[in-house]
Amino acid sequence: MFDVSFWELLIIGAIALVVVGPERLPRLVRTVGLWAGRARASFHSIRDEVEREVNAEGLRETQKALKRQARETEKTVSDAVETPASTVKSAAKEATDADRPRTGTDGEQS
Fewer Cβ atoms within 10 Å of its own Cβ: the N or the C terminal residue of the chain? Predict the structure, then answer.
């Protein structure tokens, strides 16, 4: 992210030594280090939370797509099963009707 070389750190340290003084410099460096660590930890925490939310949203979208595909597949299978079943039922009814003897109005078979 930030590219800070050794020489840049050395110049910052020399300026801080002149401005703050040698007796308060170690405490300042420790404080700055603690704040930098907290900032880094907060940044990582926020980044991880955002990544989890993005992944959760992606999973929700995937789940919706899978459910939609499952409904379409179920409908296709249902239609494929119902068509032959209705054909078989109508053929069976026609065969049953053809096997029955027909009677006329006076009770005679035709």
Answer: N
